Amino acid sequence: MRFRTVLAGMSCALTLMGAAVVPVQAATSNAQLQPAISQKVTRPIKLQGAENMRDLGGYKTKSGQRVKLGRLLRSDSLEKLTTYDTFRLTDQYHLTEIVDLRTTDQIAKKPDPVLDGVKYMQASVLGSKSNYDNDDEGMYVDMATKGAARRSYRNLLVQMAENKKGALLFHCSHGMDRTGTAAAILYSILGVSKKDIQRDYLLSNTQLNVTWAKPELLNLFYKKVNKQYGSMDKYVKKGLKIKPSQLKAIRTNYLTKAHK
């Protein structure tokens, strides 16, 4: 994780200086790991101070509905947001809440900006551990099995159930692993197909021009959840202790009739 941060920082710096940036791990050579951007689903939100923010809306669900646009946002870290960026989030998206999935140490080093009228909540997926250098698999296993992760996902979903209007934004450092698994859980509740969940997960590669997000990592998360609970549905109900009334509220809040 730390190595990723260094590489991402170098990429940003070179981009700002106008230099050509060589894609990490030859990302552009593998189109399957970098899905094409669509303006119909999971639209990227182009900001000056965040590289990996997007709207989670647009996907069609198994029930024939669609995920609402403008209500759920996912992102990388927010400490570099400009005044213009925060204006867009609060004025265009009517941002009402931010859920920060990073560790306390990461937050202390790069705190989110304080936005008037926007509720902030910390819900660390990894507890106090933030160093998973060269151990992505270990991180995904922990995100599927550790109590800190379950508490984090539960807190996020409870906030989603209570959020009746405006946008809720959740994020980690790169907006990829912790944010990606949280989005996968949410999309599963909403009835989005696994194919589309994977596409959204891999879009972080496209937006950051890397190949760090891998299908096998997300599948490892699913595998560990299924091994312990039997299914994602049982994981949400028994592992995260989300009540039927809260699941209903989440679907009511973020699903709408699909237009042909």
Automatic annotation (TrEMBL):
<dbReference type="GO" id="GO:0004721">
    <property type="term" value="F:phosphoprotein phosphatase activity"/>
</dbReference>
<protein>
    <submittedName>
        <fullName>Protein tyrosine serine phosphatase</fullName>
    </submittedName>
</protein>
<comment type="similarity">
    <text>Belongs to the protein-tyrosine phosphatase family.</text>
</comment>
<dbReference type="InterPro" id="IPR026893">
    <property type="entry name" value="Tyr/Ser_Pase_IphP-type"/>
</dbReference>
<dbReference type="InterPro" id="IPR029021">
    <property type="entry name" value="Prot-tyrosine_phosphatase-like"/>
</dbReference>
<keyword id="KW-0732">Signal</keyword>
<feature type="signal peptide">
    <location>
        <begin position="1"/>
        <end position="26"/>
    </location>
</feature>
<dbReference type="InterPro" id="IPR016130">
    <property type="entry name" value="Tyr_Pase_AS"/>
</dbReference>
<dbReference type="Pfam" id="PF13350">
    <property type="entry name" value="Y_phosphatase3"/>
</dbReference>
